[in-house]
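Final report, section 2: Outcomes. Of the targets proposed, Methyltransferase domain-containing protein is the one most frequently requested by collaborating groups, and we therefore present its record in full.
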Amino acid sequence: MSDPMRPRSSLRTAVVWDVLKEALDRRVKATGRDAHVGLDVLDTGGGSGNFAVPVARLGHRVTVVDPSPNALFALERRAAEAGVADRVRGVQGDAHGLFDVVERGGYDAVLCHGVLEYVDDPAEGIGNAVAALRPDGVLSLLASGLGGAVLSRALAGHFKEARQALDDPNGRWGESDPVPHRFTAEQLTGLVEGAGLRVAAVHGVRVFADLVPGVLVDTEPGALDALLKLEAAAAELPAFHSVATQLHVLGETQGAAEA
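The predicted structure is given below as C-alpha coordinates.
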Protein backbone atom coordinates (compact mmCIF):
# COMPACT_ATOMS: atom_id res chain seq x y z
CA MET A 1 0.00 0.00 0.00
CA SER A 2 3.04 2.27 -0.26
CA ASP A 3 2.89 3.04 -3.98
CA PRO A 4 4.44 6.52 -4.26
CA MET A 5 2.34 7.26 -7.35
CA ARG A 6 -0.91 6.90 -5.42
CA PRO A 7 -2.75 10.22 -5.04
CA ARG A 8 -2.80 11.94 -1.67
CA SER A 9 -5.68 11.27 0.70
CA SER A 10 -4.88 7.59 0.16
CA LEU A 11 -7.51 6.37 2.58
CA ARG A 12 -10.23 7.64 0.22
CA THR A 13 -8.55 6.85 -3.09
CA ALA A 14 -6.35 3.78 -2.55
CA VAL A 15 -8.78 1.15 -3.87
CA VAL A 16 -9.68 3.14 -6.98
CA TRP A 17 -6.06 4.03 -7.68
CA ASP A 18 -4.88 0.43 -7.46
CA VAL A 19 -7.62 -0.79 -9.85
CA LEU A 20 -7.08 2.10 -12.25
CA LYS A 21 -3.30 1.78 -12.38
CA GLU A 22 -3.55 -1.94 -13.09
CA ALA A 23 -6.11 -1.33 -15.84
CA LEU A 24 -3.90 1.30 -17.49
CA ASP A 25 -0.87 -0.99 -17.28
CA ARG A 26 -2.89 -3.74 -19.01
CA ARG A 27 -3.93 -1.35 -21.77
CA VAL A 28 -0.32 -0.32 -22.40
CA LYS A 29 0.69 -3.98 -22.76
CA ALA A 30 -2.32 -4.79 -24.93
CA THR A 31 -1.65 -1.92 -27.34
CA GLY A 32 1.93 -3.04 -27.77
CA ARG A 33 3.23 0.48 -27.29
CA ASP A 34 6.47 1.31 -25.57
CA ALA A 35 5.81 2.19 -21.95
CA HIS A 36 7.14 5.74 -22.45
CA VAL A 37 4.58 6.47 -25.20
CA GLY A 38 1.66 6.17 -22.81
CA LEU A 39 -2.09 6.29 -23.34
CA ASP A 40 -4.56 9.05 -24.12
CA VAL A 41 -6.72 9.45 -21.02
CA LEU A 42 -9.82 11.62 -20.55
CA ASP A 43 -10.76 12.68 -17.02
CA THR A 44 -14.30 14.06 -17.01
CA GLY A 45 -14.99 16.25 -14.00
CA GLY A 46 -11.35 15.80 -13.02
CA GLY A 47 -11.23 19.04 -11.06
CA SER A 48 -7.82 20.00 -9.72
CA GLY A 49 -6.17 16.74 -10.81
CA ASN A 50 -6.38 14.33 -7.88
CA PHE A 51 -6.17 11.49 -10.38
CA ALA A 52 -5.06 13.26 -13.54
CA VAL A 53 -1.66 14.31 -12.21
CA PRO A 54 -0.70 10.87 -10.82
CA VAL A 55 -1.90 9.29 -14.09
CA ALA A 56 0.29 11.73 -16.04
CA ARG A 57 3.22 10.82 -13.79
CA LEU A 58 2.84 7.27 -15.07
CA GLY A 59 3.62 8.61 -18.55
CA HIS A 60 0.12 9.04 -19.96
CA ARG A 61 -1.39 12.11 -21.63
CA VAL A 62 -4.43 13.36 -19.72
CA THR A 63 -7.17 15.73 -20.81
CA VAL A 64 -9.25 17.05 -17.92
CA VAL A 65 -12.74 18.41 -18.60
CA ASP A 66 -14.27 20.39 -15.75
CA PRO A 67 -16.81 23.24 -15.56
CA SER A 68 -14.89 25.14 -12.87
CA PRO A 69 -12.23 27.66 -13.99
CA ASN A 70 -10.83 27.67 -10.45
CA ALA A 71 -10.38 23.89 -10.49
CA LEU A 72 -8.64 24.06 -13.86
CA PHE A 73 -6.31 26.78 -12.58
CA ALA A 74 -5.43 24.56 -9.60
CA LEU A 75 -4.91 21.66 -12.01
CA GLU A 76 -2.45 23.68 -14.06
CA ARG A 77 -0.51 24.63 -10.94
CA ARG A 78 -0.48 21.07 -9.58
CA ALA A 79 0.66 19.63 -12.90
CA ALA A 80 3.50 22.16 -13.09
CA GLU A 81 4.62 21.39 -9.55
CA ALA A 82 4.63 17.67 -10.37
CA GLY A 83 6.65 18.22 -13.55
CA VAL A 84 3.93 16.90 -15.88
CA ALA A 85 2.54 20.13 -17.34
CA ASP A 86 3.38 18.87 -20.83
CA ARG A 87 1.15 15.80 -20.33
CA VAL A 88 -1.90 17.43 -18.71
CA ARG A 89 -4.40 19.61 -20.57
CA GLY A 90 -7.39 21.24 -18.90
CA VAL A 91 -10.49 22.35 -20.82
CA GLN A 92 -13.66 23.94 -19.49
CA GLY A 93 -16.81 21.89 -20.14
CA ASP A 94 -19.14 19.27 -18.72
CA ALA A 95 -20.44 15.78 -19.40
CA HIS A 96 -23.53 17.00 -21.24
CA GLY A 97 -21.56 18.97 -23.84
CA LEU A 98 -18.50 16.74 -23.75
CA PHE A 99 -17.95 16.62 -27.50
CA ASP A 100 -18.01 20.36 -27.80
CA VAL A 101 -14.55 20.31 -26.23
CA VAL A 102 -13.01 16.84 -26.82
CA GLU A 103 -12.78 14.31 -29.61
CA ARG A 104 -15.31 11.51 -29.92
CA GLY A 105 -13.66 8.09 -29.87
CA GLY A 106 -10.22 9.50 -29.14
CA TYR A 107 -9.22 8.00 -25.79
CA ASP A 108 -7.78 4.74 -24.50
CA ALA A 109 -9.29 5.32 -21.06
CA VAL A 110 -11.97 7.57 -19.61
CA LEU A 111 -12.27 8.48 -15.93
CA CYS A 112 -15.78 9.41 -14.84
CA HIS A 113 -15.32 10.06 -11.12
CA GLY A 114 -17.90 11.96 -9.08
CA VAL A 115 -19.79 13.06 -12.20
CA LEU A 116 -22.78 10.76 -12.55
CA GLU A 117 -24.32 12.00 -9.31
CA TYR A 118 -24.72 15.51 -10.74
CA VAL A 119 -25.93 14.99 -14.32
CA ASP A 120 -29.64 15.19 -15.13
CA ASP A 121 -29.56 11.95 -17.09
CA PRO A 122 -27.01 9.41 -15.78
CA ALA A 123 -27.53 7.15 -18.81
CA GLU A 124 -26.62 10.03 -21.10
CA GLY A 125 -23.57 10.82 -18.96
CA ILE A 126 -22.33 7.24 -19.22
CA GLY A 127 -23.15 7.16 -22.93
CA ASN A 128 -20.99 10.21 -23.59
CA ALA A 129 -18.11 8.79 -21.57
CA VAL A 130 -18.27 5.54 -23.53
CA ALA A 131 -18.51 7.39 -26.85
CA ALA A 132 -15.19 9.05 -26.03
CA LEU A 133 -13.47 5.66 -25.91
CA ARG A 134 -11.53 4.01 -28.69
CA PRO A 135 -12.70 0.52 -29.74
CA ASP A 136 -10.31 -1.05 -27.21
CA GLY A 137 -10.80 1.31 -24.27
CA VAL A 138 -11.61 1.16 -20.56
CA LEU A 139 -13.94 3.21 -18.38
CA SER A 140 -13.30 3.96 -14.71
CA LEU A 141 -16.60 4.95 -13.09
CA LEU A 142 -16.83 6.19 -9.50
CA ALA A 143 -20.15 7.31 -8.00
CA SER A 144 -21.87 7.75 -4.65
CA GLY A 145 -23.36 4.61 -3.12
CA LEU A 146 -26.89 4.53 -1.75
CA GLY A 147 -26.17 2.17 1.14
CA GLY A 148 -23.31 4.22 2.49
CA ALA A 149 -25.50 7.31 2.72
CA VAL A 150 -28.30 5.42 4.48
CA LEU A 151 -25.85 3.93 6.97
CA SER A 152 -24.12 7.22 7.72
CA ARG A 153 -27.41 9.06 8.35
CA ALA A 154 -28.61 6.28 10.63
CA LEU A 155 -25.37 6.18 12.64
CA ALA A 156 -25.61 9.95 13.06
CA GLY A 157 -29.07 9.50 14.58
CA HIS A 158 -30.95 10.90 11.58
CA PHE A 159 -33.26 7.92 11.21
CA LYS A 160 -35.99 9.67 9.21
CA GLU A 161 -33.42 10.93 6.73
CA ALA A 162 -31.91 7.45 6.47
CA ARG A 163 -35.34 6.01 5.69
CA GLN A 164 -36.04 8.74 3.15
CA ALA A 165 -32.77 8.03 1.34
CA LEU A 166 -33.62 4.35 1.33
CA ASP A 167 -37.03 4.98 -0.24
CA ASP A 168 -36.14 7.85 -2.56
CA PRO A 169 -35.60 6.81 -6.21
CA ASN A 170 -32.51 9.02 -6.36
CA GLY A 171 -31.21 8.05 -2.92
CA ARG A 172 -31.60 11.55 -1.44
CA TRP A 173 -32.17 12.03 2.29
CA GLY A 174 -33.87 15.44 2.04
CA GLU A 175 -34.20 18.76 0.25
CA SER A 176 -30.87 19.97 1.64
CA ASP A 177 -29.02 16.86 0.46
CA PRO A 178 -26.21 18.16 -1.79
CA VAL A 179 -26.04 14.96 -3.87
CA PRO A 180 -28.74 14.69 -6.58
CA HIS A 181 -28.26 10.97 -7.31
CA ARG A 182 -26.92 7.93 -5.50
CA PHE A 183 -26.67 4.42 -6.86
CA THR A 184 -26.61 0.75 -5.99
CA ALA A 185 -23.98 -1.49 -7.55
CA GLU A 186 -26.71 -3.07 -9.67
CA GLN A 187 -27.79 0.31 -11.02
CA LEU A 188 -24.25 1.30 -11.95
CA THR A 189 -23.42 -2.00 -13.63
CA GLY A 190 -26.72 -1.79 -15.49
CA LEU A 191 -25.80 1.66 -16.81
CA VAL A 192 -22.36 0.48 -17.87
CA GLU A 193 -23.72 -2.60 -19.63
CA GLY A 194 -26.51 -0.55 -21.16
CA ALA A 195 -23.86 1.65 -22.75
CA GLY A 196 -22.34 -1.41 -24.41
CA LEU A 197 -19.43 -2.19 -22.11
CA ARG A 198 -18.47 -5.35 -20.28
CA VAL A 199 -18.19 -4.97 -16.51
CA ALA A 200 -14.69 -6.10 -15.60
CA ALA A 201 -14.79 -5.32 -11.87
CA VAL A 202 -16.90 -3.74 -9.14
CA HIS A 203 -15.41 -2.42 -5.89
CA GLY A 204 -16.82 -0.82 -2.78
CA VAL A 205 -14.92 2.33 -1.82
CA ARG A 206 -14.71 3.85 1.66
CA VAL A 207 -16.55 0.96 3.26
CA PHE A 208 -15.10 1.76 6.69
CA ALA A 209 -13.08 4.95 6.21
CA ASP A 210 -16.00 7.33 6.72
CA LEU A 211 -17.20 5.50 9.80
CA VAL A 212 -13.95 5.26 11.75
CA PRO A 213 -13.14 8.28 13.98
CA GLY A 214 -10.31 10.29 12.44
CA VAL A 215 -8.56 10.65 15.77
CA LEU A 216 -8.20 6.87 15.97
CA VAL A 217 -6.54 6.68 12.56
CA ASP A 218 -4.26 9.62 13.33
CA THR A 219 -3.09 8.57 16.78
CA GLU A 220 -3.15 4.76 16.93
CA PRO A 221 0.18 3.33 15.68
CA GLY A 222 -0.29 1.31 12.50
CA ALA A 223 -4.00 2.13 12.29
CA LEU A 224 -3.86 3.83 8.89
CA ASP A 225 -2.01 0.99 7.22
CA ALA A 226 -4.30 -1.61 8.82
CA LEU A 227 -7.40 0.31 7.71
CA LEU A 228 -6.06 0.61 4.17
CA LYS A 229 -5.55 -3.15 4.04
CA LEU A 230 -9.03 -3.74 5.45
CA GLU A 231 -10.56 -1.44 2.83
CA ALA A 232 -8.70 -3.27 0.06
CA ALA A 233 -9.85 -6.68 1.32
CA ALA A 234 -13.50 -5.65 1.70
CA ALA A 235 -13.66 -3.73 -1.58
CA GLU A 236 -13.92 -6.82 -3.74
CA LEU A 237 -16.56 -8.57 -1.62
CA PRO A 238 -20.13 -8.03 -2.94
CA ALA A 239 -21.51 -8.17 0.61
CA PHE A 240 -19.80 -4.85 1.38
CA HIS A 241 -20.85 -3.04 -1.80
CA SER A 242 -24.22 -2.27 -0.25
CA VAL A 243 -22.70 -0.19 2.57
CA ALA A 244 -19.87 1.56 0.69
CA THR A 245 -19.82 5.35 0.51
CA GLN A 246 -18.80 5.08 -3.13
CA LEU A 247 -18.86 2.39 -5.80
CA HIS A 248 -16.24 1.86 -8.48
CA VAL A 249 -17.02 0.05 -11.72
CA LEU A 250 -14.39 -0.80 -14.32
CA GLY A 251 -15.90 -1.25 -17.76
CA GLU A 252 -14.24 -2.49 -20.95
CA THR A 253 -15.18 -2.19 -24.60
CA GLN A 254 -15.45 -5.44 -26.52
CA GLY A 255 -12.06 -4.80 -28.09
CA ALA A 256 -10.40 -4.34 -24.72
CA ALA A 257 -12.08 -7.42 -23.30
CA GLU A 258 -10.75 -9.55 -26.16
CA ALA A 259 -7.21 -8.16 -25.95
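The CA atoms of residues 11 and 228 lie 6 Å apart.
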